[in-house]
Amino acid sequence: MELDRFATHVDIESMLQLIKASPTPAPPAAVVNVQGVRRDSNTARRCLIDNCNYGSLRQVPNSVKVQLLSYYYFYVPNHACICQWHLIHMAIEEIPENIINQMTDLNAESVGDIINLYTQALEQRSNFNVDDVSDEGAFGLEETEPHSTIC
Ligand SMILES: [Zn+2]
Question: Residue 84: what pLDDT?
Fold first, then answer.
């Protein structure tokens, strides 16, 4: 009887040592792919438009992000930036066409950011009017968001 108890004790100790020696790896971050949705990389180091070397980077206005996602299934991550030149001169529909390296994975941060984008759009809806978008550039919107944040 005493011997059995000792054996059980040893087994538990062995198991505890094994567990400590080989900790369970952290589960990989959940990634989702939403059919048809693509995204840019989440970097503030450069303009999101390919081969653009202009400085003067700014955050992409929220209303532009919402239109890109709603109408072109293109998600601009929260750290992505655009240069002043493209902000003024490029039409919204041209933005996805000028980004070659598009990804399809979204993670929990992306989903949270998307919820925030639409929440802000709802709160600013008196200023958010897709009819304001001029043909000359995406940023007839500039009037509604004149002070987009510098990256
Ligand atoms: Zn640019």
Answer: 93
| Helical (H) or strand (E) element with 6 | helix 2-21
Nearest to 60, CA basis, from 88, 40, 87: 87
**Any domain includes 105:** yes
Q: Which residues surround ligand 1, an ion (CB under 5 A)?
A: 47, 49, 52, 54, 83, 86
41, part of any domain: yes
Quote the tokens at residue 15.
């198991």
Those residues whose C-beta lies under 8 Å from the C-beta of residue 31, and which sit 6 or more positions away, are 105, 106, 107
In a domain, 15, yes or no: no
Going from the Cα of 54 to the center of ligand 1, the distance in angstroms, rounded, reads 6
**Residues of the chain with confidence (pLDDT) below 70:** 1-10, 15-16, 18-19, 21-23, 126-147
